[in-house]
């Protein structure tokens, strides 16, 4: 799959964990491609949906999983806390809609609500860096990847139907 350079940086335990996630992404049709960046990054993209769903990175010698999971509204503590950390990372600077035009019918992204009621939106075009993961999180990671992939497939199908209907009406 081309991930050998990434795997060489990992412990045996981490390698097994990331291999399982990469294999599942491959089952869904996502292939890793090394990004042209200073740090070691592999982005997983799908030719059918034209979307990327996750990234494996090495940052300061530590493996990092970054992924999209906004298609699912309910997820466990590690995902909520990872989202909170991303929202707070630059003092709330990168929150809200960027008005990029990619969202057509509704905003696509994450919402984080604090106990005091403050709510922040994070664009779904951005990957969320997860806190260090263990094999305990792998089943939920797979579930979230599957849900995100299904969301992309449904969106692609709806876009095709919409284009076909507009051609019929022309």
What would you note in describing this structure?
It contains 4 helices and 7 strands. With 170 residues, the chain is of the alpha+beta class. The strands form 2 sheets. Strands 1-2-3-4-7 form a 5-stranded antiparallel β-sheet. Strand 2 and strand 3 form a beta hairpin. Helix 2 packs parallel to helix 4. The longest helix has 32 residues, at 138-169. The protein is globular and about 60 Å long. The mean pLDDT is 91.
What's this, in brief?
With 170 residues, the protein is an alpha+beta fold. The chain is built from four helices and seven strands; from the N terminus they run H-H-E-E-E-E-H-E-E-E-H.
Give the oligomer, counting copies of the same chain as homo and different chains as hetero: single chain
Class by helix and strand content? alpha+beta
Main sheet makeup:
5 strands, antiparallel
Poorly predicted residue ranges: none
Question: What secondary-structure arrangement, pairings included, does this model have?
Answer:
Elements: H1 4-7, H2 12-27, E1 30-34, E2 40-46, E3 51-59, E4 62-67, H3 77-89, E5 109-113, E6 119-123, E7 128-129, H4 138-169
Antiparallel strand pairs: 1-2, 2-3, 3-4, 4-7, 5-6
Helix pairs in contact: 2-4
């Amino acid at each position: 799959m081309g991930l050998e350079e990434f795997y060489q940086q990992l412990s045996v335990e981490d390698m097994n964990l990331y291999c399982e996630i990469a294999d599942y992404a491959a089952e869904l049709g996502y292939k890793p491609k090394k990004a042209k960046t200073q740090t070691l990054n592999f982005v997983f993209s799908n030719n059918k949906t034209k979307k990327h769903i996750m990234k494996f990175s090495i940052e300061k010698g530590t493996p990092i999983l970054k992924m999209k999971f906004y298609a699912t509204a309910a997820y466990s503590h590690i995902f909520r806390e990872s989202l909170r950390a991303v929202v707070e990372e630059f003092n709330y600077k990168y929150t809200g809609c960027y008005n990029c035009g990619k969202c057509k019918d509704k905003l696509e992204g994450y919402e984080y609500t604090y106990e005091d009621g403050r709510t922040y939106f994070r664009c779904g075009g951005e990957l969320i860096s997860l806190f260090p993961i263990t094999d305990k999180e792998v089943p939920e990671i797979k579930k979230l990847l599957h849900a995100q992939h299904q969301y992309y497939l449904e969106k692609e199908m709806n876009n095709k139907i919409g284009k076909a209907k507009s051609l019929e009406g022309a």
